[in-house]
Design brief:
The structure is a homodimer. By secondary structure, chain A is an alpha/beta fold. Chain A has 3 domains: about 5-40 and about 60-115 and about 245-315, FAD/NAD(P)-binding domain, CATH 3.50.50; about 120-240, FAD/NAD(P)-binding domain, CATH 3.50.50.60; about 325-445, FAD/NAD(P)-binding domain. Helices cover about 25% and strands about 25% of the residues of chain A. Chain A has helices at about 10-25, 45-50, 65-70, 135-145, 160-170, 190-200, 250, 300-315, 345-350, 395-410, 415-420, 435-445, and strands spanning about 5-10, 30-35, 75, 80-85, 90-95, 100-105, 105-110, 115, 130, 150-155, 175-180, 205-210, 215-220, 220-225, 230-235, 235-240, 245, 275-280, 285, 295, 325-330, 335-340, 355-360, 370-380, 385-395. In chain A, β1 (about 5-10), α1 (about 10-25) and β2 form a beta-alpha-beta unit. The longest helix of chain A has 15 residues, at about 300-315. Chain A is globular, with a radius of gyration of 23 Å.
Chain lengths: ~450, ~450
């Protein structure tokens, strides 16, 4: 009898879990259920379609229909899972036409993702107020942009800033409003965030931090917002204040949630219920530095967890030990990246840190086009191990974040990084890369 | 009594050793001796001036005269060191006007560098035959380029290819001839080198490998070369077949050379003679993987060794454990990099390897401008540790080389790299970076 594997969700986590399951078991009967119409596309690409960098939403499809046929996956789109019975090992779902069906499973993978949430701001029901999570969301925003001259984005996280930048690039007068006193609060320390904010403001994006939106203004249609008494006109308001993991089905089925209120899994991505795995935005994961559960709803985390969940669900063996939270983005032509803990997040975890910042160049000082790059490195005080890095600069940020990610993973000390070998050529790098120079500055502080 | 420190050489190694010595001992009497007129400039930048990317040779000066004044360094240019007496602890040298002088030292640092060597090819004395090591060399080439239509470069190492590319960029019909069967033989395995060669040929650089130059043709002035019976016309011939470390003075003074015929030093960069240190292109160094002496005449190695030599010479303590040989260059718009051992160099060292190659993209597949990048990763068979990486691609090569450099330094295994966390954003990187995907392919081969 072929193994029956059911996967709920068909984006990064769902599709990668499915691929891993198929690679592990060629004969398994694999069924995917998703309530969406469009599947297997890159959500992270959405703001860049809005910004005009990518031609169409269709370009974002990473797993086309042909992929599911080739992999012999029974993909059921626009189906709504109504119940999971972990004792009977069944999943009950409803087709769009109302028809119900129940599937038996040997292994179940919950990759149910997350959804945008709009905080209870007065006026949030008005026409012209959007969230940005799906192609459908973006199509509605695209449509609204045709007649819009100005926009407000609420929330200065990655999605919020990427969307704000996209609006400016498309010619809209745009303001981003953030409740916390800095942009990218989950990613950067305030000093680096302030450098990012200054750069973005220099490119024409207005940013208000440390203020909450009092009200979304307008009649039936949005006309602006009121923030700290000030009125900001806007034809479009995008709310990007965060997402909430889709954990309701799991919870109803008796699957345990963790302290972050996301699904709790072990290193094999198995929930507290045997044969039920979970991955992606709906699970919590272990931070490799603090060793504590954390919320890390990144695409990179989703695909890595999914590979492990899919392998195990199909009878293989793989583990996902946790995350460092390496992330990066490009805002206008400014690259911003981070990995590990910042000073602030380390402090919240009770870790004492020493840190140093340095601004160097991305090429030899004398080479035309050399761009400034600001690097901040954070070390744990007692062990002198690197625990975090943050960067803002013109080029090479993503790969420098990766280099620091490897360094943190392998418990490199500040001293080791300060003398670590890097490569050099005038058009591409300095003899001492800015990350090694930052480590040298940090080393002097540790002495 | 202030400590007397004498440094022979005033380029990367000499200048960085001087800086480190000054930082370690504010009161030392520091004298630098160099037979050159121009000091403290970036040799690695020379081909890029020839190519027109950098405006003038003056731009390459990293340590201007003001630097030596500020650091209270007695810099004696155009002086020729004639003798080192390690018993009397003196250095004898001659000024340009013939006057001799003898300096007492407490610590001596030999950073005498290397010089270009021209193999005994028939016709090598003709006008129009050049080497490329100094600003003066380049000025002569620049002058000759004014009336030249074609060029030949003998040697397809880093300098040879960079110079060949510069000539093409300046409109010269150019051929590079390499004795060995591949380009960049000291840096890359043949498969990766062949990919580089194909790219360069596609951009208009003619390359002949596996053939030696029979003769440089012409009367008093060069008119071409004869290679394997074929005649290649050339108004300029640049010989870039390698350099030889300037070890004669040291040898004469009784300082021991190692098995590579370069000066032998310990981890403190001290020679077999007490208080005599050496660094840069004139010393051999330990390869961190083979643990054997190696020749690694890179700028990055020079500055790292120099920092250690200067610190120790001034009474401090620092060690330089060895090299991985991380190197990179940009040829036209193609980035090429390597670190650690290739399959061929590992084989020569008696190390059994498993390797895998993979061609991925530098951005999300769907993002406009995503460029192909070919990655090869080499692992030691028994321990499954990463011991080398080679890359060719459009962007991000230098920082990926650095990431692998950190991985090798910290003894990362293939399995660890295959699941290591990297960052992702559609305009900057894929969810699985090509280096992690290459490691995944390699992992399958190890099973």
């Amino acid at each position: 009898m072929p193994k029956k594997i059911v996967i709920i969700g068909a984006h990064a986590a769902g599709c990668d879990a499915t691929s891993a399951a198929r690679l592990t078991d060629k004969n398994a009967e694999i069924t995917m259920l998703t309530n969406e119409k469009h599947v297997g596309y890159s959500r992270c690409g959405l703001p860049f379609v809005l910004g005009g960098h990518i031609k169409s939403f269709a370009d974002l499809i990473v797993f086309p229909q042909s992929y599911f046929r080739m992999m012999k996956i029974d993909l059921k789109i626009e189906t709504n899972v109504t119940n999971i019975d972990v004792k009977a090992k069944t999943v009950e779902f409803q087709y769009r036409d109302g028809r119900m069906e129940t599937l038996q499973y040997d292994s179940l993978i919950i990759a149910a993702g997350a959804r945008s949430v709009i905080p209870p701001i007065k006026g949030r029901e008005k026409r012209g107020v959007f969230t940005l999570r799906t192609i459908e969301d973006c199509e509605r925003i695209e449509q609204a942009m045709k007649e819009a001259k100005s926009a407000v984005v609420i929330g200065a996280g990655l999605i919020g800033l990427e969307t704000g930048v996209a609006f400016v690039e498309r010619g809209l007068k745009t303001t981003v409003v953030e409740l916390l006193p800095q942009v990218l609060p989950a990613m950067l320390d305030k000093d680096v965030a302030d450098a990012v904010q200054k750069e973005l403001e220099g490119k024409g994006l207005k940013i208000i931090t440390g203020r909450s939106v009092d009200e979304i203004l307008g009649n039936e249609k949005v006309s602006g917002i009121s923030v700290g008494g000030e009125q900001v006109p806007a034809d479009i308001v995008v709310v990007a204040t965060g997402v909430r993991g889709n954990t309701e089905l799991a919870q109803k089925a008796g699957i345990e949630l963790g302290e972050t209120r996301l699904i709790k899994v072990n290193m094999r991505m198995e929930t507290n219920v045997k044969d039920v795995y979970a991955c992606g935005d709906c699970v919590e994961t272990i931070n490799l530095i603090t060793k504590r559960p954390t919320v890390c709803q990144l695409g990179t985390t989703a695909v890595r967890q999914a590979k492990v969940a899919g392998t195990n669900a199909a009878g293989g063996y793989a583990i996902f030990p946790g995350v460092l939270g390496a992330s990066v983005t490009k805002l206008f032509d400014i690259e911003v990246g981070a990995v590990g803990l910042g000073e602030a997040s380390a402090q919240r975890a009770g870790i004492e840190t020493v840190s140093a910042s340095f601004t160097g160049k991305t090429k030899a000082q004398y080479y035309p086009g050399a761009l400034p790059i600001k690097v901040k490195i954070i070390a744990e005080k007692e062990t002198e191990k690197i625990i975090g890095g943050q960067m803002i600069g013109g080029e090479g940020v993503a790969q420098r974040v990766n280099a620091l990610s490897f360094a943190i993973l392998k418990e490199m000390t500040v001293k080791e990084l300060a003398k670590a070998e890097t490569c050099y050529a005038p058009p591409l790098a300095e003899t001492w890369d800015p990350i090694t120079l930052t480590a040298q500055m940090l080393l002097r502080k540790l002495k």
